[in-house]
Fold:
Amino acid sequence: MVSRPFLFALCAGCVALLLSPAAPVVAQDGGDMQARHHGPQHTVTVSGEGSARAAPDEATVRFGVVTEAQTAEAARSQNAEASSRAMNAARELVDEDQIRLETLRLQPRYDYSNDERELIGYEAERTAVVEVDDLDVLPRLVARVVERGANRLEGISYDLSDRASVRREALQEAARDARDKAQTLAQSLDVSVGEVVQISERDYDAPQPRFRARAMAGDAEQAATPEPDAYAPGEIEVSADVQVTFALEERE
Structure:
């Protein structure tokens, strides 16, 4: 029969074992088990920047039609007729789904020259957007819509159809830049760069090239006149910014 003092001692030993802090145990070559203590991991966090350039292959054209008349109905109907001609001109060069109406406005016009508000007529304005996926068509498109009725050319913006691939190039350059910075810091501290602990991406794209046309009727005709390199978009720069945390290791 087991004595009661022995049982109490055995239970106390079990509790002490359960409450003691755990330590990792590894097997040695000889087969014995030995606890090994690992200290806190040392890291370095750096930012990396990268960019990639590519020639745009898409454009968005915004043009408007502004008409003035003595009555609201006359301003509206004249605007509708001129807008129809301009949009039909665009349809000759691009598909229907590449054209959309953006704004339509009809408002009174007043004269304040005699310190009084005097109604002098009405103004109608319609703005349309045309998306162009063939930049060779762009000069002809602008010229035709202006010739057919558009009297306000608000601007042309350029873009990339495959922005994702250019973005990947920028990210790769940003990652390389981050590792180069980490290695520079590690060498100055006589340590080595280890594995990546954490990485995050921060979005940033440079503004798109934009052609600003002069706004009103006579200037719109002049802006639509083809000139050497008048519609040359240059290149679009896509930028990337990453933050990377690397482990630091002692040099062997």
